[in-house]
């Protein structure tokens, strides 16, 4: 801890300025700034103290939200909401009002200031910060159906010559592609000042955290702003020099929300993916209107390492006395040391950041070993009681007495199964068993109703729970033994919800959260089983464009502000004139079943005849299947025979909401009682329309009319008397549209005056860039709602989640230093992959990209076709894109085809009736790019050899992205280009090729298939073990970790170190790794450590040329827990007896 002490100073006008907080919401800027503007002669300045601990300032019914979760308790409650009630928050009267585009992801919670003078007029203003180091101020009252108006102001705070930080530059794929402002800012309303921290780097590779103070009316920097964050404390911990530990922005991640208390700004830091050397830091600043002054600095592990403070984005909390509370993550724990280290602990600090108290669970050691951070969740102080509530990844909930947190109880063997679930050891008011809830990555919320007080907990893999607060016989206030209610959703994806609450005092309570599946949800706060609203109820109008993990909604003055990856989306009560119409539904029964009585129920043509479900299936058309035509994949209605399944045109308007860039709208259907046409209309979001003629051929007629294309031919139809041998057809037609506009809907022609009718079964769009056209993932509880293979089977959402693959999240192939994809941000039962039909997909331009990579699979057997890389110079590069069958041919194929790598293996798939225990896979494929060019897009194959070729994600990788740190192979023509052993010696590329070892080619040994590094000679191609963590996504039920590698400078006993295997359930397993010397001491001893020789070459290289002495690569195998899923491995940090090198890793 910092031994320096700073006296606390309070400005004499501080109390007056606090009262003036109300005036700032009522009076125009000039009047207020006569009192507060720091540059005017005679003006005074002070940061407001504790203003947000009371109710947020309000005027004329308006309420400000100035800090994370509304107040310094982090209660998440706005109890002055008079507009939104359980009676009017529903899909009919409440919905999306506007979506404002922004320049980067919004990880911060929106803040809100009513009646703010901006550009000479009063506005209710919502503020957001982005990962592009920008702040936006938007009018909160806008309702726009035809695009959003510009912001009131927008400022980017990057200094000249600097950029935001690319995730690769900090070796952490937690936030991709850039890192800027992550921690939620805080606003001092009395001075109209916002404080926040930016992260940036310059061209020399220097990193900067800067604290800013800006005028919220203009976005302009205040005098003396920004200031570069620097700090140091006495200590001998990680990264220390000469008895001092210094703050290093390269290793410190500012994620936790800022705190304004005691006239100071308090800021917390964690880590970038646990990359060492990092520490948890709390640093405070005072601002006097002209300059920042650092007042205090606290390091959580001054003589150790780790213990970051991140809270899933939650803030430091402060009580009414100004004491500060936080929860630390994994790190060293030495509470009794002169300078304590407090990993995985609740910590209480004084206003000047002196350690006052702490609590660490009895199993603190176990949490650290399992990467089960206690500090993944944020602290909640109960407003009415001296109590603190929180929890972390283990799924326990703790209730602590803030006057006596509980410190640490030593237990012998805390990690044993007998002790693991105990709740009677810690000296706390209450704790629940592990896994009471899922992993916590947010802050619980609090609310007092007229009849009870509630605490709301949202976590991963569980419903959101409401607990009542109850007083026990000792007078202590505890959580009810069981939840009083829970949400209908049984399980929330990573990172769970992060609840906020609105009410009018003790009535009209509504709990709000952002579902990671991509929906805003609202519940009756007294009974969470009563869901009031979901944006998924009206996906054509209300849907969110994306989801950002840890995100938190803000509720104020009848508005709900939702941050996403690309927009700030505002929900609220809708004006009646612009409320969406009721959804359009099918109005005709066109398909009947040959074997049931519903032949009578269908009447496609008005004469009692209909398509046969069996005949359609024989033509490859089944419920929910993709129907391919003209490079498009239509989704056939996922309905049984005998129910309404098509639109019979009568002038109805069908929502499309396709997004910009669409070039074609296409229709699948036919006409009855004669070919017919009529005037239809494309409706754009800007209010313009495009009339066109929509014509379809009679279902019994061929060749087609109206330039229709024939899609399918059926040899009979059904009628009142059964099957009738009349050939019937299905047709395709389309219309070209304006790609510069966004399509809102299509209006079908009015009903013709004669007997002819026009029928539409499906509509699809084709764009400059393709759209998903297949539903590949279903929820285990609704397995029939996806159809990956056109046979009713699909991947399981829960199986993917168990493997660490979540919608919208980063997906890593070969760890964070490998290829980073973004998994489709689509919930189960939504379109989430491309069936290749010749569509062109955009690729983010990346300078010096060397590889274009794909995640996907085939259905119906291994599938391949010719694809094209499209470069920015107009040139094209053809290549073969192929994927193995998603079940490896029902398990009959021993290994993938086309050189595919296995990205993830799943233990089962879903079929319409439930789970089917057939292993499924998602594969990795790549193509080398032409050097010196920039890839613009990729065109998928228009045709394939068999089955369907599916693509989930596309990414690029640069040559500079190599995860390896040692060059172990040289070309015989340039032997000095590599240095495997530190003396200039290396394996020979030609000698390896002579025994069948080539870059990227699969190599099988002992039944395990490895991929040799896809790296040219002379480049880094192996891991020289130094504590690297390598992610291995989606590897369940494996029995062994297999490695190819060797040691250098070792004797007959080999080189030794410890590998740490981490599993997806948070547990960890240390394993000894030993590898033999790569030349076996020049042939003087045999392999050690139980190694076997996998590869032997006739010679190796030195700078002077070939050395006629054998070189070896060894196979080592380490046992795994087959009941668990491997998440990552960490290579040894300390190696005895030489150096350890690893070329390839696989799981057996």
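-> sequence recovered:
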């Amino acid at each position: 801890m910092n031994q320096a002490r700073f006296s606390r100073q309070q400005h004499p006008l501080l109390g007056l300025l606090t009262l003036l907080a109300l005036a700032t919401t009522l009076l125009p800027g000039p009047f207020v700034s006569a009192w507060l503007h720091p540059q005017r002669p005679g003006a005074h300045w002070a940061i407001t103290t504790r203003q947000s601990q009371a109710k947020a300032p309000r005027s004329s019914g308006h309420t400000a939200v100035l800090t994370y979760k509304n107040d310094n308790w982090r209660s998440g409650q706005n109890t002055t909401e008079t507009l939104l009630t359980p009676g009017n928050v529903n899909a009919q009267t409440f919905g999306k009002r506007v979506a404002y585009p922004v320049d980067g992801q919004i990880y911060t919670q929106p803040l809100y200031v009513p009646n703010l003078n901006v550009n000479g007029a009063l506005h209710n203003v919502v503020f957001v910060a982005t990962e592009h180091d920008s702040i936006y101020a938007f009018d909160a009252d806008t309702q726009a159906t035809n695009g959003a108006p510009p912001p009131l102001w927008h400022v980017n705070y990057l200094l000249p010559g600097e950029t935001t930080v690319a995730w690769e530059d900090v070796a952490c794929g937690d936030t991709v592609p850039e890192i800027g402002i992550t921690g939620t800012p805080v606003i001092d309303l009395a001075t109209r000042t916002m404080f926040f921290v930016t992260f940036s780097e310059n061209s020399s590779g220097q990193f900067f955290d800067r604290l800013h103070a800006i005028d919220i009316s203009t976005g302009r920097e205040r005098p003396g702003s920004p200031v570069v964050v620097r700090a140091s404390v006495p200590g001998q911990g990680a990264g220390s020099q000469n008895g001092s530990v210094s703050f290093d922005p390269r290793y410190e991640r500012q994620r936790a929300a800022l705190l304004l208390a005691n006239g100071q700004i308090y800021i917390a830091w964690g880590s970038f993916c646990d990359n060492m050397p990092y520490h948890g830091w709390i640093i405070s600043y005072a601002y006097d209107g002209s300059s920042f002054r650092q007042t205090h600095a606290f390091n959580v592990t001054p003589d150790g390492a780790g213990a970051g403070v991140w809270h899933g984005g939650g803030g430091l909390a402060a009580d009414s006395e100004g004491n500060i509370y936080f929860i630390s993550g994994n790190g060293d724990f030495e509470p009794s040391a002169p300078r304590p280290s407090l990993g995985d602990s609740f910590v209480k600090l004084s206003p000047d950041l002196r350690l006052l108290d702490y609590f660490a669970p009895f199993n603190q050691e176990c949490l650290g070993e399992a990467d089960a951070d206690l500090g993944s969740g944020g602290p909640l102080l109960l407003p009415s009681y001296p109590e603190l509530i929180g929890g972390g990844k283990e799924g326990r909930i703790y209730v602590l007495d803030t006057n006596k947190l509980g410190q640490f109880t030593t237990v012998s063997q805390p990690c044993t199964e007998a002790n693991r679930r105990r709740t009677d050891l810690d000296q706390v008011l209450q704790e629940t068993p592990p896994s009471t809830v899922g992993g916590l990555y947010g802050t619980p919320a609090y609310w007092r109703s007229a009849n009870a007080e509630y605490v709301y907990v949202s976590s991963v893999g569980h419903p959101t729970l409401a607990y009542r607060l109850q007083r026990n016989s000792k007078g202590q206030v505890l959580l009810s033994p069981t939840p009083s209610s829970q949400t209908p959703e049984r399980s929330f994806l990573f990172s769970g919800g992060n609840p906020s609450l609105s009410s009018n005092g003790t009535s009209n309570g509504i709990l709000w959260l952002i579902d990671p599946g991509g929906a805003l949800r609202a519940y009756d706060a007294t009974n969470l089983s009563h869901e009031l609203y979901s944006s998924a109820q009206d996906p054509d109008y209300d849907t969110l464009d994306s989801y950002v993990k840890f995100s938190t909604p803000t509720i104020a003055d009848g508005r709900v502000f939702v941050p996403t990856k690309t927009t700030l989306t505002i929900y609220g009560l809708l004006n009646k004139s612009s409320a969406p119409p009721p959804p359009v539904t099918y109005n005709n029964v066109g398909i009947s079943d040959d074997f049931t009585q519903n032949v009578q129920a269908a009447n496609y043509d008005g004469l009692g005849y209909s398509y046969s479900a069996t005949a359609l299936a024989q033509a490859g058309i089944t419920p929910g299947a993709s129907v391919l035509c003209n490079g498009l994949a239509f989704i056939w209605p996922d309905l049984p025979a005998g129910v309404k399944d098509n639109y019979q045109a009568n002038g109805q308007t069908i929502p499309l909401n396709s997004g910009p860039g669409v070039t074609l709208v296409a229709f699948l259907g036919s006409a009855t009682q004669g070919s017919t046409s009529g005037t239809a209309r494309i409706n754009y979001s800007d209010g313009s329309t495009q009339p066109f003629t929509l014509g379809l051929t009679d279902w019994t007629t061929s060749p087609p009319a109206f330039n229709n294309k024939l899609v399918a031919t059926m040899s009979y139809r059904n009628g009142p008397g059964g099957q009738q041998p009349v050939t019937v057809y299905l047709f395709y037609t389309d219309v070209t549209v304006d790609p510069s506009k966004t399509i809102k809907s299509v209006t079908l022609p009015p009903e013709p005056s004669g007997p002819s009718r026009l029928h539409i079964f499906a509509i699809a769009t084709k764009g400059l860039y393709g759209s998903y056209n297949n539903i590949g993932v279903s929820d285990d509880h609704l397995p029939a709602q996806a159809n990956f293979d056109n046979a009713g089977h699909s991947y399981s959402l829960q199986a993917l989640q168990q493997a660490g693959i979540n919608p919208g999240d980063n997906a890593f192939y070969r760890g964070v230093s490998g290829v980073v994809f973004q998994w489709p941000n689509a919930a189960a039962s939504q379109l989430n992959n491309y069936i290749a039909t010749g569509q062109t997909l955009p690729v983010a331009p990346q300078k010096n990209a060397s590889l274009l990579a794909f995640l996907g699979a085939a259905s119906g057997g291994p599938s391949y076709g010719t694809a094209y890389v499209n470069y920015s110079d107009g040139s094209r590069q053809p290549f073969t894109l192929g994927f193995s069958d998603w079940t490896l041919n029902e398990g009959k194929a021993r290994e993938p085809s086309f050189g595919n790598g296995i990205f993830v293996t799943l233990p089962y798939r879903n079929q319409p009736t439930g789970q089917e225990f057939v292993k499924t896979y998602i594969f990795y494929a790549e193509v080398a790019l032409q050097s010196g060019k920039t890839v613009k897009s990729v065109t998928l194959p228009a045709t394939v050899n068999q089955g369907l070729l599916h693509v989930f994600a596309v990414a690029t990788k640069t040559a500079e992205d190599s995860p390896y740190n040692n060059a172990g192979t040289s070309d015989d023509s340039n032997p000095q280009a590599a240095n495997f052993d530190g003396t200039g010696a290396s394996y020979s590329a030609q000698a390896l090729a002579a025994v069948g070892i080539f870059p990227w080619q699969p190599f099988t040994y002992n039944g395990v298939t490895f991929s040799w590094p896809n790296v040219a000679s002379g480049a880094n191609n192996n891991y020289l073990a130094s504590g690297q963590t390598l992610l291995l996504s989606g590897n369940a039920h494996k029995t062994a970790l297999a490695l190819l590698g060797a040691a250098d400078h070792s004797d007959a006993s080999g080189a030794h170190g410890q590998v740490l295997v981490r599993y997806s359930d948070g547990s960890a397993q240390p394993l000894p790794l030993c590898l033999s010397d790569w030349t076996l001491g020049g042939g003087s001893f045999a392999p050690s450590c139980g190694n076997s020789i996998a590869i032997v070459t006739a010679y190796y290289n030195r700078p002077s040329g070939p050395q006629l002495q054998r070189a070896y690569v060894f196979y080592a195998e380490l046992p795994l827990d087959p009941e668990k899923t491997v998440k990552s491995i960490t290579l040894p940090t300390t190696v005895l007896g030489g150096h350890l090198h690893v070329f390839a890793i696989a799981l057996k």
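Residues 14-26 form the longest helix (13 residues).
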